Fold these 3 entries.
Entry 1:
Amino acid sequence: MSTAAAAAADFGDTSLFTASKDSQAIMPGSEFFGEIEAFLYFEAELMDSHAYDSWHALWEPGGLYWVPCNHADLDPNQSVSIIYEHTDQLGDRIFRLKDKRMHSQSPKSRLIRIISNISVTTSGASDILVFSNFILGEARAGQQQSLFGRATHRLKQGPDGFKIAGKKVYLINNDAPMRNVTFLL
Amino acid sequence: MPDRLDVSHSNYDGDGLRSLAPPGWVHSAVYTDPKIFDLEMERIFHTGWLYIGHESEIAKTGEFKRRQMGRQPVIFVRGQDGVIRVLLNRCRHRGAVVCEVDEGRDNFFRCWYHGWTYSNAGELVSVSGPEGYGPSFDARENGLTPVPRVENYRGFIFAALSENVIPLEEYLGGAARMIDILIDAAPGGELSVRAGYNRTTYKGNWKQVGMDGYHPLFVHASVLATWERDADSGHSLGATHSANPFSFDGISETRDFGHGHTMLDFREHRLKHGGKLRSLLENTPGGKDYIEALYAEHDSAWADLLLAMAGDPHVGVFPNLQLINNQIRIVNPVSVDETEVVMFPVLFARASTEINALRLRQHESFYGPAGSGSSDDAEIFERVQLGLGANLDPWINISRGMERERVESDGTIVGHISDEVPQRAQMSQWLAMMADKPADGRQ
């Protein structure tokens, strides 16, 4: 059976991005908070520098990459998203980003993102939910655009560091006419 | 190639406009001159039929959506009386928009400049300080201005700002039966256009969003490579495109139904290669019921076609509507070199959640600002707009297939999938509306 129908079983698994009741806030300034902060900056650097494979390697298999459309939060079973991909479809996105015939990234966008307003909660040792705001500037082919958004990361702590089990990116202009956003968000 | 035509001093009378589009050619001014764009607004978008929305978007009384008819902001609304109307979004007093949000549900539209209030049927129901207006003031004459013509083709609502348009079904002609390929693919014919939309924009002329079967092998080469790598890629959107329907020796066709309505006609190709889509559906929860419903509701030949086509007519209705894959698409010209494309994924009201979720996932994989296909289309449209600046050689070549197209008995022009039959159809209707003397005697 195709991966499409198999994936259908977990369509709408957006509870990933909601803190569980027993979760606890991690205080800024703590060592653990610093590690999370460093991870977000590291991920941002990979995205800004188009290090596609390294970024893809940060993902937990089966992880969900979600960029909702029109609102901050909607049921993706019933409403269209800008991106709603599990890691296998994300593999196609990475494949195309590396393909010279992906015209919308020829030339590549030059990207800078600033990440701030980070907050972290955990539930148990390995289940981490991170909220952050970002400003992303894109310059490409003589044009420039600025994107503003809020990212939610569901991270797992494993033997070789943090892995992304889910990432939701809410762009505040997601109900407005948008230019291409074919770089990593 | 025609001689270079310097249009910098052209006044664009009928002959001037016709000289921009000799058979097989288009002058780049048609895509780049703001004066042409102004004429298009008046003669095409402020005159003829435009697609406004689907009735399911405003299924409940009081539901409304903001839409655009050329430069006219309008409200697409179902009144308390259940009637669908298209009203100018402009207060009859001093002109402010009375609907400031994209969508919602309400009993009234209120202008917050001076408090004039209208019902959701457009009637003026309240004027602040009414004693300030004399006895000649008649509220009944001061409702929101209705768009004069509104007609419904099986749930697809079209409107025209001129009274003097031919009936909608006559305008749609042979394209109507192709719209049925989407409608009938929904059990009970019940579409649900309530899943939101992707809005994209590019810096290029609106006419570039045509129906083109020549570009996919090049513009979408990276996507086709993912489909070749894994046939299930893109949630099997490629299942409807299996065996390369765009190949130069393939059996897919392009069609011109008249009035600028066109189709990338994959019917024969998909009937031949449609088995994969059927097995995808059979393996999706609710899929067997869905297939059974199609065969219960339609004769088996039509049901075979509906299933092979997956509700995708791939048809364009001039000037602003396209039905492509799982979406209804509205093209909004913003200026001569800026266009907005709004993509509404269409769900089937009586199909399973899984089938509808699959339709959404297929749509997102290719369309929208981060989709694999739309984004490369937008990039190429921008490259075209840049290239057209080189107007020392102003001619665009749309002649492909002119010597091998054929005309069917009903007048439909048919070419190979890679032929520019749709581009010529678009220009033919463009000329008819822009340069020919219209039936209603306008200049």
Note: The helical segments of chain A are 3-8, 31-48, 52-56, 87-97.
Entry 2:
Amino acid sequence: MKDILSLFFAYARSGLKSRFQYKVDAIVVIFAVFLREAGGVIAMYLALQKFGTINDWSIDELLFLFSLIFITYGIFIVFFMALRDFPDWIKHGDFDRVLLRPRGVLTQLVLCGADWLAAFGHGTLGILLLIISANRVGVEWNVKTVLYYLMCVIGGVLIQGAVFLAFSAITFYVLETNSLKEIFYWNMRKFAIYPLSIYNKFIQAILIFVVPFAFVNYFPAQFFLQKPDMASYPTWFMYITPIVGIVLYALAYAFWRFSLRFYKSTGN
Amino acid sequence: METMINVENLCKTFKIQRRSTGFTGAVKNIFRPTYEYKKAVNDVSFSINEGEMVGFIGPNGAGKSTTVKMLSGILHPDSGSISVAGYIPHKQRKDYVANIGVVFGQKSQISWDLSPLDSYEVIKHIYRIPDKLYKDNLERYTELLDMSDFIDRPVRQLSLGQRMRADIAAALLHSPKIVFFDEPTIGIDVVGKDKIRRFIKTLNETDNITMIFTTHDMQDIEQTCQRLIIIDDGKKLYDGSLENVKSGCVSTRIIEAEIEDMTNGIDIDHTQITHDESSGKLIVTFDTDKISTSEVMSQLMSTNSVKDISIKEPGIDAVIRDIYEGKIKVRAATRVSADASVGAVAFSNVCHRQTAPQADTRF
């Protein structure tokens, strides 16, 4: 563990050092990410001024729902950036180098890819939204809820990590997976901004069973908010985010291990 | 001497989609893709002893890189066996790669925005290099590769030659037993190439590191390796001493003659005669062991009116090219006789090997 940590910090040091070679760019990136994402929040806020509520969810409750996406995504890009951009790693031959080093393949990819600056942008926005909204919707923080919140964040990160790990495994067969990600990750993420209950059954099923974004933010938020629309789903869905994360990640990992042997290096 | 690398009947086939062109072709590609199978490596066997330095050459697409990638554990072979330093590379990847270093001339492993020193720090962590070894190696390679001027400068400010030297040091910091160089001199100027070659040779001699060196530059091979493996179309064409290939050039001669009346058919025993359309010259290739130069000249002149004539000795590049094209047949039929023709001195280590490689069909 100490060994893994020291490797993680070595990667982090060199990663940050190389980003700060261009100081202006580095700082602008943080703000750019923050503002880009905040734009989405502001649009939602303005729309809600008109409607008041969506499916009985107030603006503050929606922001609480939204904050979980940013917080989990901020952590996600610290660990899963390399998997998010995995087709490039293969196309540019960088994956060959990973295979030539005496460490686990996934260990290296998870530890080395961190995009700290973007993570900082997403994370700050997420925490800001959390602080603002949690207070107003009356979340009661105690040891139990804080612990569960943290576990849900970890679970949410693992769910998204598992989705990208599976996509990365598919990359070994088809080389390019960006359109798949567009459909099954980025679009799903857009859906997850709003409460699950506003969508038709088909989209709900996808968000619960296929790309389970509902467990990243909707069900954990229900644990804290207890909105009436939770009645349409089994109550225990509110409690299983960490388990969904672990199980999904384990499945994706098995698929990744299996697919690794099909890797065909690119020519020079 | 111990065997370090042993490869037997290695095969690797790639499935390539055959693309039809045009719109209908594009539609067809989606619904009814046709595939062709390319045997990138086809039944290749060889073995390399500890401390040997082997040049691995072949035209583009010959299967060199695929072979090196299988040797280094990146690719799984379809069939055949590989054993390197007692490991099976693709099965014991993690343990195995701690013993090897790989330098890709086309793909740097040091970070563009950092100094070589910063990248080395990360490598030190990845390979778990002990402080003492790291310090010693760093000091030694900085001196041998003459890097003290630029080791703390961002890589983006370095020349290609400097970057390559920094890359070579990066691959050696963990003191590997085997090093693969994949075109390490590509695009580098004469002085830079020379520095790299001399370093590689020194390292091979002093540290007894086993090395495989793929390149397109015959000078690289001439100045560093004693043994040469030529691979083309996935098959091993030649495996033997460099000397032997060179002696192939020594006995081969090429006569270029400009002849007034080309309509007469010219035929001289023991020679290959071609007509170069662009220069209009007649090119006669022959082996001085079979027919003497004067004999060829007199036959040529007796039957034709020759305007101009010149005799050439092909350089090693030309010999290799002719080997690719199947024009020249190097005399040695097997590694064993190849060694014998050079004598016991240079290759005494190879002669005692238990497993004699298979005979090369084309020689």
Note: The first helix of chain A runs from residue 2 to 19.
Entry 3:
Amino acid sequence: MSKVAIHAIYDDEEPLMATAKELRSKGIKVKDVYSPFPIHGIDAVIGTPRTRIAICAFIYGITGTCLATLMMWYMMIHDWPTDVGGKPSFAYYMNVPAFIPITFEATVLCAAHGMAITYYLRCWMLPGVKAKNPDPRTTDDKFLMIVETKEENKNNIEAVLKNGGASEISYK
Amino acid sequence: MNNLNYTFTKKTKNITIGLMVIGFITIVAGFLTDHAPDGVSHDEYHHNRFWANLLVNGWFYMGIALLATFFMALQYVAEVAWSVAVKRVFEAVSSYLPIGGAVMLVILLAGQFGVHHLYHWMDPEVINPESPKYDEVIANKHGYFAPWFFWLRALIYVGVWVMFQRGFLKRSLEQDLQGGTALHFKQMGKAAAFMVFFAVTSSTAAWDWMMSLDVHWFSTMYGWYAFSGMWISALTTIILFVLYLKRKGYLQHVNDSHIHDLGKWVFAISFLWSYLWFCQFMLIWYTNIPEEIVYFQERLHDFGYMGLMWTVFFMNFVFPMILLMSRDAKRNYYFLVIVGSIIFVGHWLDVFMMVMPATVNGHWHLGWIEIGMALGFLGAMLFTIHSALAKRPLLVKQHPYLDESLHHQV
């Protein structure tokens, strides 16, 4: 049996949420939702797995901390010991308060840029790439829910979607 | 069924009264047993340890109520919707302000009459050029520390703060009956006025009452540092009360998202405090100018506070940062209670670090007087907050953002 994708358009986010909950309670998976603004709590309702960007952010941040520490240790202690304000420059830890702002900034810099770049790559949002939006109206005032299902279930699901308040239903 | 009428149970009442009794006994016994340490002549000793402790607790607990008032005003000025569901808790925490302010005034009054010598500059001898105690630095600051000006300021701070705080609470109850938006906009106007007044007086009060303990020293960061410390203490008190009430089955309208937002505030403001604390430290450490470095010389090297300084740093920055970083931790009851308690004690110790090196110098203790008095004041504050909670319904009835707050989701 071939699979079909049902595209259901809604005028509001609340009926869409309610329908998504109903579908999930019947064991039907919602493939994706497109909306003009973020709908709070939708990811839990449609069962999107938790984002792992926090783990990436942590790794990027630690990388930043290490790079900054290495850089400052090399410049200020190892290669060319610099005495600023009469502070001892024999070892890194003796001067550590002075290095904290840069460590902090480098951590933030790496974490923020790393997260942004990861996001763009993961979503494949690069210069010149064509947008993957199935229906441009979802950038204005419509909400789109996509349900992928087998051919034989489609009438069943269509009824649920219609009952939930879908204003248009199409198959792709 | 969401029960909005909090009952101050007999058991809770007994606990808070018990704490107050402990505090009272410690105050009396502490005063009687507080003798001059070795090397200090008996005649010159004015129960410094006792009075310094009163000041630590007076300032710390007043700060909690004061910053709860500020936080309440902030919600109006910024037109915040989510916090309406827990607004009554902010109001209850702020209700200790009149007592806290009165305690501070009593401590200052005792200093003015020479009962204690915490404030070196209150001694009229130090500005008399004929006297052997003459101190030119203090004499140059006399314009600011002249008794009439000092007392005018002190009374204005406490008076105006209390006036605003009572006004907010009164209008909040009136709004329950009246509805509409007229009173809400009035609250907003008053809150904006309070913000302007508070922006100046939070700093100047910290200079007058706390920074002047080290009267030769000054720091432009001090006002904000004290302010952020009070703010985080107030937030932890608020979040602990919200969690307590939820545990007891009240505040059922408060959902995970409200708790999460409060957790974010605790996380953010503990960073704010750390930031200001470190800024003040690093600039002074780096420039190493004798008249500035004395403050940290006393606290780090001269009087043996090094361990306590590190403890404060770990309790107030490292633990909250690590423990509250993740989203789940900010929604978790146990995490928040543990971190909240750590921060609460940590900031009490921070105030201890502000006061003690300047007053009792090396003769500091963390013994039964310190702990007993802190518990006593804690009891007084808890008693006030619990009674304030019991007096009024736990949820506002008429507020333009009430509905939005009840559906809060992040």
Note: Helices of chain A lie at 13-25, 42-45, 53-79, 96-122, 154-163.
